[in-house]
Amino acid sequence: MEGEASVNKLHTQIEVKPQGQEPPPPSSSVVDNSEMDIQPDGKLPFFKSRYRQRASDTWLISLLVILHLVAFITTTLFNYFSTGSVFFQPLSENPLLGPSASTLDKVGALRRAFLVQNHLNWRFFVCPWLHAGIIHFAINISCMIFIGIHLERDYGPLRIGVIYLLSAFFGSLVCSLFVRNNPVVTSSGALFGLLGTMLSGLIRNWKVYSSKGAALAALFTVLATNFLLGLLPYIDNFANIGAFISGLLLGFVLLLTPQIRQMSKNKAGLFECGVKHAKSTIKLRQKLALDRPILGSISLILFVILLSGCLVALFLGIDINHYCGWCRFIDCIPYKRWSCNDGPNTCEIMKSNSEMTLTCLYNGNTRVFPFTNISQARINDLCAMIC
C-alpha cells in the first residue's frame, strides 16, 4: 500500500503541457510600456527618458563638457604663468573668481579693438569655449548638462550638435556688434542656444509632451539665472540673446518630433496596450511633422536673414553702442565691487624698491601694490581695476 501511495504522489507532481503551445518569452526580452514612459493618453513626459538610455546616447554633451573643461584649465594655466602667483584673481578684480583681463585677451576673448583694428576673426571660434571664472564655469556647465542631455536623448546628437555650434557662432556675431573695450567671453551663448531649442521643441511638439508646466518653469529658471550672471563683467549678454534667438529658430527647423524607440512587431497579448499607445504616439508625431512645414521654412528664412545681416554689419564695422546709449546696461550693471567702465584708463605709476603705487588720472583713486616686476599688460589690468 505504501508503494502505491508513493506512485500516486509521483503522478500528481507531473505537469501535463498541451501540444503546440510555446512557453512565454522571458521577461528580459520584452520591452514593456514603462521603458518608453508613454502615458495612458499617449503623451511623453519631457524630463524623463523615452527609453532606457545607453551611455553612448549622450556622447555629444560629454564631449562638449570635456572641451569646455580643457579650455578652462588652459585659461587658468595662462593666468598662473602671466601673474606668476595665482590661478584666479581676487573677487575685487574678477567677481567671477577667474583670470585677469589680460589673460582673457591672450586666450581669445572679444574686444572692439581686436575686431576693428586687428581683424582677429579667429576669436569668433575660440571665444564660445571660454569662461570668465570658476563661478561662471560651474553654473554654465551644470545648466548645459541638465538641458543638453534631455535634448540629445530626445532629438539625437546630430541635430543638437548642429544647433549648438551654429548658435555659439551666431551669438559671437551678435556680440561683435555691441562689444566695447572690455574683454568678454561668449560660452553662455551656446547654453542659451540650447534653451531656445528646448522652447521651440516644446512649442512644436506641444501635444506630444506632458508636464509642460514643469519644463517651462525649469527653462525660464535657467534662463533668468544665466542672464543675471551676464550682468557681471566679462560675460556678454548680447551673445546670450542672439544665441537664444538662433536656437529658437533652428529648433523650429530641425526638431521635427522627438525620437522614441518603437516596440517590436511581434508583441501581443498583455503587451497590446503598449503597442496601441506607441502607435498612437507615432501617428501623432507624423501628423505634427506634416502639419507644420511652413513654420520650419519661415524660421529658416529668418535665421538666414539675421545671419547675413550680422555678417554684413561686422564687415562694415558697425558699433550699435553709438545708436543705443542704454544698451550697455544690458551687458554690465555698474556696482561698487566691480567696474563696467570701458573707456581708456590712464594711471600714474610710482615705483620703489618693493612697492608700486598706481593713481588713476580719471577719478584720482590710488592703490599701493607690494610688487614692481610685472608686465605692462598686468599694469593695465590693475589700472582698470582702480579706475
Task: Sum up the structure in keywords.
387 residues; mainly alpha; two-stranded parallel ribbon; 5% strand; Peptidase_S54_rhomboid_dom; transmembrane
| Strand order, sheet with most strands | 3-4-5
Global structural class: mainly alpha
Shape: elongated
Element-by-element helix/strand order: HHEHHHHHHHEHHHHHEEEH
Transmembrane segments: 58-81, 129-149, 161-179, 185-203, 215-235, 241-257, 294-318
Enzyme class: hydrolase
Function: Serine protease involved in intramembrane proteolysis.
InterPro entries: Peptidase_S54_rhomboid-like, Peptidase_S54_rhomboid_dom, Rhomboid-like_sf
Short account of what is shown:
By secondary structure, this protein is mainly α. The protein has 15 helices and five strands.
Description of the molecule:
There is one protein chain. This protein has 15 helices and five strands. By secondary structure, it is mainly alpha-helical. The chain has a three-stranded antiparallel sheet with strand order 3-4-5, covered by helices on one side. Strands 1-2 form a two-stranded parallel ribbon. Strand 4 and strand 5 form a beta hairpin. The longest helix has 25 residues. The protein is elongated and about 70 Å long.
Topology record:
Layout: H1 2-12, H2 33-36, E1 44-45, H3 59-83, H4 101-107, H5 112-116, H6 123-126, H7 134-155, H8 157-178, H9 187-204, E2 209-210, H10 212-229, H11 237-254, H12 272-291, H13 293-316, H14 328-331, E3 347-351, E4 356-360, E5 366-369, H15 376-386
Parallel strand pairs: 1-2
Antiparallel strand pairs: 3-4, 4-5
Helix pairs in contact: 3-4, 3-7, 7-8, 7-9, 7-10, 8-9, 8-11, 8-13, 9-10, 9-11, 11-13
